[in-house]
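Hi Q.,

Before the meeting this afternoon, I wanted you to have the magnesium ion prediction in hand. No need to reply - just skim if you have a minute. The sequence and ligand are here:
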Amino acid sequence: MFHLVKGIYNNWNKREQYSVLILGLDNAGKTTFLETLKKEYSMNSKPLDKITPTVGQNVATIPIESNRSILKFWDVGGQESLRSMWSEYYSQCHGIIFVVDSTDRSRIDECSETLKGIVMDDEIEGVPILMLANKQDVPERMEVQDIKEIFNKIAEHMSARDSRVLPVCALTGEGVKDSIEWLILRLQRNKEARPPTYK
Ligand SMILES: Nc1nc2c(ncn2[C@@H]2O[C@H](COP(=O)(O)OP(=O)(O)OP(=O)(O)O)[C@@H](O)[C@H]2O)c(=O)[nH]1
Ligand SMILES: [Mg+2]
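Predicted structure with the ligand bound:
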């Protein structure tokens, strides 16, 4: 009887874990976003002024109590020479966050070409994609509506899946938690196609 109850309890206590890949050009604010996210979910985080360009990966496992689930984030370097490694993560990921530097008009074409390269990859077919228009605190930023228009054109070519462009400021945390709430609902909605692991 004890073992039965313990088994039921253990099963009930297991949580869905989803892997989320954070991509985007170098300097977009991916690592800043991840560190702010850790802070927003009451985890130890690195001071934002100590973040240096990522060579390799940063990993963070964050329990999301409101959904009784766990998100495992993979933040990988965005420098051009490192982008060829991104595809190694595709088969394992349940969702993608693509961070855009809204202040960098000179690289918006490079940014959209890079996103196109990701969404065209068969290995991430059906995976929800959240685009974050970051650095909304900078007055000279591009308007979210303009960024939406650019990325919605790419989204039109994607097979049926969830995608969204949301404004955030990774430095102050504005919009960060809301963006994760959007994503986690889509990950759960997509779980028949990409089942989570259980922890
Ligand atoms: N003003 C402003 N600056 C930001 C924001 N988010 C990030 N930054 C700055 O952008 C720069 C790059 O941030 P990172 O988080 O290192 O960028 P990354 O995308 O991880 O870059 P790589 O690791 O090279 O791919 C840093 O100087 C950050 O302080 C933001 O919301 N507002
Ligand atoms: Mg980084």
